[in-house]
Design brief:
This protein has 398 residues and is an alpha/beta fold. 38% of the residues lie in helices and 18% in strands.
Length: 398
């Protein structure tokens, strides 16, 4: 298996490959891939279903993963639930909230489909109102949220880092605003987890969820949810069955307690273990070191892109940025841009509408290019990317 070593971790990256699409799916550490193989080589049991040894081992591994993540986020293990994807998490979460039809969801046009579509589904199905922060609202987002959120019926649904243009939100301050108004705050941390330290002990949103295969560098088919102890008892899961059920009669069922209340079907313990292994490796490197490394990359990238004639970086005034940058060009379509970058220098970037149509409607381009970094990228790779883009656009302007 081909690999590159960064910060002492062997990653599944081929020699010469410049992978800049971590916001779609992160490149896994080799040991996380081996974690999956080792699980099945040593039995591959599933939790809850039975009493024999493989079942017991699977249960122990599941709870070990739960404790590991809880320690990382400084929370109680019972607050964590595992899912197959963040779309499943959010759909289940929204429909699990009490008095849903009388409530209002506030989100943003900077959010992608994985966040907005479940909210629209609830709006169409139940009649829950839905409103959006626009680009002007995002410039001073704390003031905008202060004006928008004013009731315990309000549900604020945002990401900590936008997948569209990499805007970094101060979720801790947003949490305080929601707490002051009794509103429910649901936060997608898929693009921050694995990139920076996230401590939830003293000040956390009501519900936090994340994909396991983006910033966390786990495999696809993993996600997790974290709830506060205050909101958890009032949530009635939409999706029930399997190991989440303690007992059942003809017209009644009793759900399990703790995080397993939301865990239906057969959990993929191998993939969950792989995700936990990746996050543990990143934690051992040190999230402060990771964040400083990526700030250097993104600063170099932003400065370099602004110096290239023929592209327009998607930026907001006064915004803080994370590990994602996007831009458009009138000279070349985004998909063509991506294909040429790969042909010329084996550089992989995301192109298209980024599953974010509400954001795209605000732009003059029909598609854009997104660059997203992680621990395994280097400043030299960013320099190669910038030189390749600059050379390509200069040739097109001749």
């Amino acid at each position: 298996m081909s690999s590159n070593t960064h910060f002492g971790i062997d990653f599944n990256i081929k020699p010469g490959q410049i992978y800049l699409d971590s916001a779609t799916i992160g490149k896994m550490p080799i040991s996380s891939i081996e974690t999956i193989t080792n699980f099945y080589s040593n039995g591959g049991g599933v939790p809850v279903r039975g009493m024999y040894n493989e079942i017991s081992q699977a249960n122990n591994i599941l709870e070990s993963n739960r404790r590991e993540l809880a320690s990382m986020f400084q929370i109680d293990p019972i607050q964590i639930s595992f899912f197959s994807s963040r779309e499943v998490v959010l759909t289940n979460t929204l429909y699990s909230l009490p008095d849903l039809k009388d409530r209002r969801i506030v989100s943003s046009i900077l959010e992608e489909h994985s966040v907005i579509a479940p909210a629209i589904r609830v709006n169409n199905d139940v009649g829950t109102k839905i409103e959006y922060l626009n680009l002007d609202d995002e410039i001073d987002i704390l003031d905008s949220i202060n004006e928008k959120i004013n009731s315990k019926e309000d549900i604020l649904l945002l990401s900590s880092l936008t997948a569209t243009n990499g805007v970094k939100r101060n979720w801790s301050e947003i949490t305080k605003i929601c707490q002051d108004n009794g509103a429910t705050f649901i936060l997608d941390m898929s693009y921050s987890v694995g990139h920076e330290e996230i401590l939830l002990k003293d000040n956390m949103p009501d519900i936090v969820f994340s994909s396991g295969c983006i910033g966390a560098l786990g495999p696809p088919g993993t996600a997790f949810q974290i709830t506060t102890n205050e909101i958890y008892p009032d949530m009635d899961p939409l999706i029930v069955g399997g190991g989440s059920i303690i007992t059942l009669e003809e017209e009644y069922y009793l759900l399990n307690s703790a995080g397993s209340k939301f865990e239906t079907g057969l959990l993929n313990i191998a993939n969950i273990s792989s995700m936990t292994n990746s996050l543990k490796l990143l934690s051992e490197v040190g999230f402060t070191k990771i964040q400083q490394h990526e700030e250097t990359l993104i600063s170099h990238l932003h400065k370099g892109l602004k110096d290239i004639e023929g592209i327009e970086v998607n930026e907001l005034e006064n915004a803080e940025y994370g590990s994602i940058v996007s831009f458009g060009s009138e000279l070349i379509e985004a998909h063509d841009f991506a294909l040429v970058l790969e042909d010329l220098k084996n550089i992989q970037v995301r192109s298209g509408a980024l599953c974010s149509h509400l954001f795209m409607y605000e732009l003059k381009y029909s598609d854009i290019v997104r660059i997203s970094t992680h621990l395994y990228n280097t400043k030299e790779e960013i320099t190669i990317l910038l030189e390749t883009i600059s050379s390509l656009l200069k040739q097109m302007q001749i």
